[in-house]
Sequence to fold (184 residues):
Amino acid sequence: MSFPLILLLLVVGIVLGLNLLMVFYLLLWLFRKTKAAPYVSSFNKEIDLMKQNLHLHKSKKIVDLGCGDGKALRFFAKEFWLKGSGYDINIYAIVFGKILNRWFGVRDSVQIYKKNFLKVDLSTFDYIYVYLLPWQLAEIEEWIWKTMKKDAIIIANTFKFSKHQSYEIIKNKKGKESIFLYKK
Ligand SMILES: C[S@@+](CC[C@H](N)C(=O)[O-])C[C@H]1O[C@@H](n2cnc3c(N)ncnc32)[C@H](O)[C@@H]1O
Fold:
């Protein structure tokens, strides 16, 4: 067999293998008992919207419930000088996030922990950031309102809570409601 043919077979094998792995993980996610929101970082378009429209107070504390690799927290730390704490259960996202924090020089202002966010004491945070699927927001809505600080502000990316009314909605250029702000 010639070298180019071996190389081609190798590449095809790797691509097929990766696709199978992705399908496997998708099936695993679909059929597991607790369907937590998948690890998808906040998109730049929503980050830009927040940059343009939010007015947050420097040095306050923000928590990201399901922080993934901490992308949103790095944004809040860099843009608004907030102190960020993020909690996630996905070890890959956490390890990657810690590397990125080091790379972007925010190790002192952004902490990422491997922990179920339901075990976090929300009462110490001034801002609560969530980018979670609607059904998961519905599951944690009551808990957040019950345990959050009296004057804390909740920032919900893309998906909104079902029972509480936001006091402000930030729309994107096309008029789509994108960021929802809530108070107690
Ligand atoms: C859509 S991602 C959001 C990532 C990040 N907040 C951002 O905006 O870049 C949702 C994350 O929530 C995490 N997650 C879901 N349920 C969780 C739980 N009970 N405790 C901790 N993390 C959770 C998932 O592992 C996933 O990484």
About this structure: The domain at 44-183 is CATH 3.40.50.150 (Rossmann fold). The CA atoms of residues 68 and 93 lie 5 Å apart. The pocket of S-adenosylmethionine is lined by residues 36-37, 39-42, 64, 66-68, 71-72, 87-90, 93, 116-118, 131-132 (CB under 6 Å).
